[in-house]
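debug: dumping io for the single-chain case to check the tokenizer round-trip. Nothing else runs in this session.
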Amino acid sequence: MGCVTTQRLASRRERPHCSGPRKILDLFSRSVETSTRMQWTDAMRSAIPMPDNPWPHDMTITVEDRPHALLELLWLREAHSLNPDGEDLPPHLVRTPVPAATAVYQATRARWSRGWSGVWDEVLAHAGTEPDRALVDNVFSAEASDPDRARLLRQLTGPSVSDQFGAEVFDDATYQEWDRLGFESHVASRPTVLANSPERRSVAVLADAWRRGLTKVVTVPCVGTHVRQIGPHALLVTEEVRGDRAAYENALRSFAPAV
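debug: decoded output
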């Protein structure tokens, strides 16, 4: 079984502010660069089954283990003491953020609390999809006009957290520090994860879920054993669930095929 990773190249604070299609292109680049994606596949990707290999030769599972937009929303909820209502919302973060350095008015906080759940559901739904390769090619095509490129980029990046709550909210120094520490902790944990991946340990149960339509697992650093199916092909779990073999296999067994 092999692993392909995309590492973060730059942080939000290292990027210039821009507007229009340039801004959207920046958002797309940042969403790729600031997330760490692991795509677990059979090492050989052979055209024929290998009897001694428990990993199905044609199975590909993407593990999105640092979903940038979801992390932004989770930080916002706690750093600004939001109290959103909604069904099946994620638990609190394992690493509690300090309060935002730049406070907002109570009316703003109340408005953000009312809107947070809806934005979470929209961003989560997009996180459960895979990028359309044809869209990516069209975005960077020399023939694409600025309006067309902006429209295509919106489809690729999905709902914008910054559009809903303001880009400046994530320029907060406490967010920058929280994001930096989280990324460093995540990178430090990677050698252990890669050497003994949950997907390798639970390949039989994972393969059964894959046959039912699972192609992607999204993890969030929240407390407890929160599990939620995202559309017909993805599953949201906490890092605690993915790190516990029994809990992870129960989550994988809960994945239901599309009707």
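debug: round-trip ok. The beta strands are 2-6, 37-41, 60-64, 216-220, 227-230, 234-238.
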